[in-house]
Design goal:
With 567 residues, the protein is α+β, with helices and mostly antiparallel strands. It has seven helices and 29 strands. The strands form seven sheets. A seven-stranded parallel β-sheet has the order 24-23-22-21-29-26-25. The chain has a six-stranded antiparallel β-sheet with strand order 3-2-4-10-7-8, with no helix packed on it. Strands 13, 14, 15, 16 and 17 form a five-stranded antiparallel β-sheet that branches. Helix 3 runs parallel beside helix 4, helix 5 runs parallel beside helix 6 and helix 6 packs parallel to helix 7. It is globular.
Length: 567
């Protein structure tokens, strides 16, 4: 069995039972199901090599099935079936009875199957519909038969862990941690099903540093004074362990003590100015597509990034696995968490309901990760991807920001990365895929005049509702570079360079322009590694080196140098 580790270390119970491994699989609708034609290795999508299928054509409908054993103890309370993520619409059946449906390919969902199960053998089936050609969030998944440009192989169906766990009838539903600006206290919100006493115990390095007991009637917020405060910082992901007991239910979790905010144009982490040296990470794997072969790959990718002097990543057009964020939390690695908004029609407010329901799940489920320092609900929403004459509706962008801040007022939010900003955003970011010389000229204008006009980048002339930079908001160069390095001159990129000395000159010129501007709070280079035909990574798709040790060292030295805004 692959990927049998617990998928979410922030919410663990002892009763975890992993259901990854071999499932029956068929490409059809549930109503048309006859014989299962394949075996598939869950949690890998059928397009991947690791699934055992490797089918790259459109798979708009498919069905999964497997048998589970259920004991008398399993049925003594709730028997909860969990899915880490299923793309896109999932209908779940137990012994042929429909037990739940979930819409959205990037968030976890669950259902109590005890009312439908019997002692002994039971059959779980999952029917999936997924068509990226519809008006749905699909990120970088190609809507064409093959990959092209910056769009890659599709990922259909189950792509994260499936598991069972037992809980009592009264159980813990949700936990949220709120580190306080006094740097002495953490607020802990506990939401339960039912009423009763809750005990919270907080441990640092094996030592209890805070605890509380109290009565909860469905929801309560505890103030817990910490006897020791260890700050979560860049490169030092100090984490507190937490244990929450409610009746017969016990959940293990963790949190990091950090406060992320802006002071003028400076990004502040626990009151200290930090320049965001980010790299774009697509979250793709040559053998698993959306899903890493094992959890070691997450720590490996973070280590590759840090080796080049980056201190974080913009997780691009995909909601990454909770397990990946766990590695970021441990590493003190900064993250922009982004919704896979491409595929939605941002000119059509009918898609807003779809967005709100799914993005709300993301913010709620990922709230406790200290590594997430920015929410990014939308990306490049200036016009429709397939027809640039259709410009996005600014109400869509402004609603995305409003919903995000209502769900989480503790973090900065950029309304739409690199696109036309609306009236409400915490960060005015921009994307710049110009050459080194052009970048220097562009940033000089920002330094001297506070002018940053989006139509100098990618805004079409017919665009409307283009909100100009006001000279006050924090600035972030959230995409730049994108240079394809190939000695053969092939591969897709914003420009192709075959000589590594020329590549290095361009890289240093671009990056220093941002570092030397005291009005810019961070950058994000495109990208960490190649993905399929997009060959503009600093590493290959297999995460191998593309440059000599000397070039890699100079890139790392440049990225690590002190930024003007930090001085």
């Amino acid at each position: 069995m692959s990927r049998n580790e617990h998928p979410n270390p922030q919410f663990q119970r002892r009763s975890y039972m992993c259901l990854n491994g071999a499932w029956d699989f068929a490409k059809c609708k549930y109503a048309d199901l006859g014989e299962f034609t394949h075996k598939i290795e869950v949690p890998f999508c059928p397009e991947s090599i690791l699934s055992g299928i490797g089918e790259r054509d459109y798979i708009t409908d498919c069905v999964y099935s497997r048998e589970i054993d259920v004991t008398e103890e399993d049925l003594s309370g709730r028997l909860v079936l969990h899915f880490g993520a299923v793309d896109y619409i999932a209908a779940v059946y137990v012994n042929s009875a429909l037990v739940t449906e979930h819409v959205g390919g990037y968030t976890a969902f669950e259902v109590d199957i005890a009312p439908y199960a019997t002692i002994g053998k039971n059959i779980i089936a999952v029917a999936v519909h997924d068509d990226v050609r519809e008006n749905i969030p699909s990120g970088k998944q190609s809507s064409k038969p093959d990959s092209y440009g910056c769009f890659y192989t599709r990922s259909t169906g189950i792509w994260q862990t499936v598991w069972l766990e037992r809980t009592p009838a009264n159980y813990i539903k949700q936990i949220k941690f709120y580190p306080q600006p006094d740097y002495k206290t953490v607020k802990v919100e506990v939401i339960t099903e039912g009423c009763g006493n809750v005990a919270v115990n907080i441990v640092l390095d094996g030592k209890t540093v805070g605890s509380v007991n109290g009565y909860v009637e469905y929801r309560y917020v505890f103030d817990i004074a910490l006897s020791e405060v260890a700050l979560w910082e860049v490169g030092s992901g100090r984490l507190y362990d937490a244990e929450i007991a409610f009746g017969d239910d016990l959940v293990k979790s963790y949190f990091g003590f950090r406060i992320a905010e802006y002071d003028g144009k400076k990004f502040m982490l626990n009151g200290k100015s930090v320049f965001q040296r980010l790299v774009l990470d697509q979250g793709y794997y040559a053998d698993g597509i959306y899903t890493a072969k094992d959890e070691k790959q997450f720590a490996h990718d973070i280590a590759l990034s840090k080796a080049l002097g980056f201190n974080g990543a913009r997780l691009h057009q995909k909601v990454f696995e909770q397990r990946y964020l766990y590695e970021c939390d441990k590493a003190g690695y900064l993250v922009w968490c982004e919704f896979p908004s491409w595929g939605m029609k941002c000119f059509d407010t009918k898609a807003l309901g779809v967005f709100v329901s799914q993005w709300s799940e993301v913010v709620e489920q990922y709230f406790n990760h200290p590594s997430i320092i920015t929410w990014c609900p939308l990306n490049e929403a200036w016009c429709d991807l397939d027809n640039e004459k259709i410009v996005r509706d600014v109400r869509f962008v402004e609603a995305a920001y409003g919903v995000t801040k209502a769900l989480d007022p503790t973090r900065p939010c950029v309304d739409v990365s690199g696109g036309f900003h609306g009236r409400y955003t915490d960060i005015f970011d921009f994307h710049n895929y110009h050459s080194g010389d052009e970048t220097v000229t562009y940033i000089e204008e920002v330094k001297n005049t506070d002018t940053l006009i989006m139509d100098k980048l990618y805004a079409p002339e017919h665009a409307q509702e283009n909100i100009p930079y006001d000279g006050i908001l924090p600035l972030n160069a959230s995409e730049y570079g994108g240079m394809s390095f190939s000695r053969k001159g092939d591969g897709w990129g914003y420009q192709t360079i075959s000589d590594e000395d020329i590549f290095l000159k361009e890289y240093l010129q671009m990056t220093r322009a941002y570092l030397d501007c005291d009005k810019i709070s961070g950058f994000c280079y495109t990208q960490l590694y190649d993905v399929e035909q997009e060959q503009n990574g600093l590493y290959s798709y297999a995460r191998g080196k593309k440059f000599s040790d000397g070039v890699m060292r100079k890139i790392a030295e440049c990225n690590s140098s002190v930024a003007a805004i930090e001085k």
